[in-house]
Specification:
Layout lengths: L2 H6 L3 H9 L7 H6 L1 H5 L3 H4 L3 H25 L2 H18 L3 H23 L5 H6 L2 H46 L3 H4 L2 H58 L8 H31 L7 H23 E8 L9 E3 L4 E7 L11 E6 L5 E4 L3 E3 L11 E11 L19 E2 L1 E9 L2 E8 L3 E4 L5 H14 L15 E2 H16 L5 H12 L9 E2 L1 H5 L10 H21 L9 H8 L6 E6 L7 E8 L5 E6 L4 H6 L2 H7 L1 E4 L10 E2 L3 E2 H5 L26 E7 L9 H4 L4 H11 L6 E4 L2 E3 L1
Helix pairs in contact: 6-7, 6-8, 8-16, 10-12, 10-13, 12-13, 12-14, 13-14, 16-19
Length: 743
């Protein structure tokens, strides 16, 4: 079943999450129509390879054209219209930057996998629950409603100012008319009546001026309250969601909605500012004793300018945190002299600002690092697929400066992976007589000089963004706080769902919890230290918990990914639990688990029954990435043989726990059929008999002496003869054996 088919079977609450990240950048129609083709392409690799991304983009357009031809024959007018629009989008927006569409599709597929993993979990984790709080959603709706109401109020006040201007022009005309009359005419009864009418008009003007100023004051007050409370909370929530998304959590949305709110508020404030300027103009043409304009206008204008300053300062955000294109799922870890990308956005989208704001990027203030490459760029609305006012730095490189002694600080294999740095950005906005200096910073980043430092650096990023909301605490690791175990386990599951396409279930998380704490504990109450997670070695081992887990992630990603995604690898289960699960099962039932003693190793254990009826368990020596590079794991499971003393070799693996026939579980992942070889060529001596690798173990009976390594590889001639006799000599030239421990 395709991933998209699985998504369509989700409950409505999960489908709503899927709906949030499909938009005009990558329409859902294309995801639906081209589901299998899209899932068969390597978008993640294309996101880091422009040539590959261009080929995939061209192939995507070809696929759209084929769909367009099909629906044209069916005369489906709506679908024809949508496909033509999508084709235009793909050619127009992504032709100059094909890696962008690769990043978008890769993110969508990864987020689908995360949601599928979350749907398979019995309960949501505490972090994800907090991000989907109904109170937060209600506040979002309230903010949008209030912004819309403020915009309407500002527009209505415009009409009041226009009425006031018209009334004052009429008063001015009639007053000047009277002033132009001769003195005798001014004493007439009609003129006296006109003077009384003018006085009434002046009273109305005074009332209207006070009314307009009052309405302007209310609009300003509403904006102030909204910015101080709900809008600030919305922005902080978005930044927190971004933190969580960076460490594998749900993709964070809502920035477009925030941009709409910020833009409407800015437009309303500038509208109010123009209204105050118009009142000043009216003041120069007419004033009187008790005139409210000269008293109230300066205070209101000062408040408007203050709000504009704050609104602009809060609107300058890092839309996409620093990330090396070579490691898209490890943001905020930067390697010296390797390019990284970072994207900023101004949430106030005004046409007057297009290409008018130049942003400068710097790093830290301690002068230990400098940024090489293009570090000054103009914000514009053309590069971003959604037309936002943004700038993306794509060619920045951190470089460590030499110390006074001529050597580099900590660069090298021992660079401190708990040392936090910050990428800072500054710019200046000049608009309608206002000059506003803007500054913002990325979330803390970790610098490395060698890829071997990446796992520990990523652990630092995880811990920081899990344990604190503070976006700029660069001294965090001077005294790192503990984390709640329940939240940490949730984040660890995200590492698997985002990096290898399938999260962890409650049983797997229980095993990790016991490994972290050494005991069975309550998730909600237990506080885990940073040292326990990443600094202290596991009991009896030469490595930390995180190094062990990271090695497993790497093993899955590079060697057993399809089997992991299918859910056939139990993985995280202790030897004790393993025996409990297998002891009552049919002989030949096996399960797959990750080694607890070998880094990046996977083993399988099966249950067997002795002649006297006793149950016994066998675990093969763990396979690591070196051995799996030579032979796919699915083929190992298919071809694995055991020789009991001098008996016939046979495959002991029959059923994947609990009772799935082995070939049913892994058949689609076999690379070829065993013993399926071609005949030697007609060239006689020039032809070769093809060879295959067969994993073989030898189990000695109870009376035999324990086997030594020399018994395992190479095999003795007699054992090899038995193997050739029963497995076809044309199919086997070499056999690879693996040590088997009898448990």
């Amino acid at each position: 079943m395709s991933q998209w088919s699985q998504v369509q079977q989700l409950e409505i609450k999960f489908l709503e999450q899927v709906d949030q990240f499909y938009d005009d950048n990558f329409p859902m129609e294309i995801r639906h129509l081209l589901a299998q083709w899209i899932e068969s392409q390597d978008w993640e690799a294309a996101a880091n390879n422009e040539a590959m991304a261009m080929i995939l983009l061209q192939n995507l357009i070809i696929q759209v054209d084929e769909q367009l031809d099909r629906v044209s024959q069916e005369k489906n007018l709506l679908l024809i219209h949508n496909l033509k629009r999508v084709r235009k989008l793909l050619q127009g927006k992504y032709h100059g930057n094909p890696m962008h569409i690769a990043v978008i599709i890769s993110n969508c597929l990864r987020e689908e996998r995360r949601i599928l993993a979350a749907a398979s979990m019995p309960v949501q984790g505490p972090l994800e629950k907090s991000l989907q709080n109904s109170v937060v959603s209600e506040r979002q709706r309230n903010v949008e409603h209030k912004v819309s109401a403020i915009k309407n109020s500002a527009q209505m006040t415009d009409q009041d100012v226009k009425y006031l201007e018209d009334l004052q022009e009429e008063f001015d005309f009639r007053y000047k008319t009277i002033q132009s009359l001769e003195q005798n005419d001014k004493n007439s009864t009609l003129i006296k009546q006109e003077m009384l009418a003018l006085q009434a008009m002046l009273n109305t003007l005074d009332y209207k001026r006070k009314e307009v100023l009052s309405k302007i004051g209310r609009v300003i007050h509403e904006i102030d309250m909204l910015m101080s409370n709900m809008l600030t909370e919305e922005l902080l929530d978005w930044k927190r969601r971004q933190q969580i998304a960076c460490i594998g959590g749900p993709l964070h949305g809502g920035l477009d909605q925030l941009q709409n709110c910020f833009t409407l508020l800015a437009e309303s404030l500038f509208q109010v500012r123009r209204q105050l300027e118009k009142l000043d103009e009216l003041l120069t043409r007419l004033t009187y004793d008790g005139d409210p304009i000269p008293v109230q206008r300066p205070q209101l204008l000062e408040k408007v300018n203050f709000l504009l300053y704050n609104l602009f300062r809060n609107s300058f955000v890092v839309e996409r945190q620093p990330c090396m294109p070579t490691h898209p799922q490890r943001p905020m870890v930067l390697k010296t002299l390797i390019q990284f990308t970072v994207k900023l956005r101004l949430l106030i989208k005004l046409p007057e600002l297009n290409y008018q704001i130049r942003v400068k990027a710097t790093i830290d203030n301690n002068r230990r690092f400098v940024l090489c490459g293009t570090h000054v760029k103009a914000m514009n609305m053309d590069e971003s697929a959604n037309g936002s006012l943004s700038v993306e730095f794509r060619h920045l490189q951190p470089k460590e400066m030499k110390t006074s002694a001529g050597s580099k600080g900590n660069e090298g294999p021992h660079m401190v992976t708990e040392e936090l740095h910050s990428i800072s950005f500054e710019t200046q906005v000049c608009l309608y007589g206002l000059t506003i200096n803007l500054e913002t910073s990325s979330l803390p980043v970790v610098m490395i000089s060698n890829v071997s430092q990446l796992p520990n650096a990523w652990a630092s990023i995880i811990w920081y963004n899990l344990a604190t909301n503070d976006p700029q605490n660069l001294s965090f690791f001077n005294n790192p706080p503990a984390a709640t175990l329940s939240q940490l386990l949730e984040v660890l599951s995200w590492q698997f769902s985002s990096y290898v396409g399938r999260g962890l279930n409650s049983e797997q998380l229980n095993m990790l919890a016991e490994k972290l704490t050494g005991q069975q504990v309550s998730y909600n109450d237990y506080q885990l230290s940073w040292a326990k997670f990443c600094k202290e070695h596991l009991p009896g081992k030469s490595f930390t918990f995180w190094v062990w887990l990271e090695a497993i992630l790497d093993l899955i990603k590079k060697h057993i990914l399809p089997l992991w995604i299918d859910g056939y690898i139990m993985g995280f289960v202790s030897k004790e639990k393993e025996r409990i699960l297998l002891k009552d099962k049919t002989p030949g039932t096996f399960l797959l688990r990750f080694s607890e003693s070998n880094l990046g190793g996977i083993t399988f254990t099966w249950v067997d029954q002795l002649e006297n009826g006793d149950v016994t368990f066998h675990s093969v020596e763990p396979y690591n990435k070196g051995r799996l590079s030579a032979l796919p794991f699915a083929d190992i499971l298919r071809d694995y043989k055991v020789i009991m003393a001098d008996n016939v070799p046979e495959n002991p693996l029959k059923y994947l726990y609990p009772d799935i026939p082995k070939d049913k579980a892994f058949g689609k992942h076999y690379s070829c059929q065993p013993n399926e070889v071609s005949k030697p060529s007609d060239g006689g001596g020039k032809g070769y008999v093809p060879s295959v690798f067969i994993p073989v173990s030898k189990i000695l009976n109870d009376s035999a002496e324990p086997h030594s390594p020399s018994d395992l590889l190479p095999m003795s001639p007699s054992v090899y003869a038995v193997l050739r006799e029963h497995l076809s000599p044309t199919a086997i030239e070499t056999a690879v054996s693996c040590k088997l421990s009898l448990l």
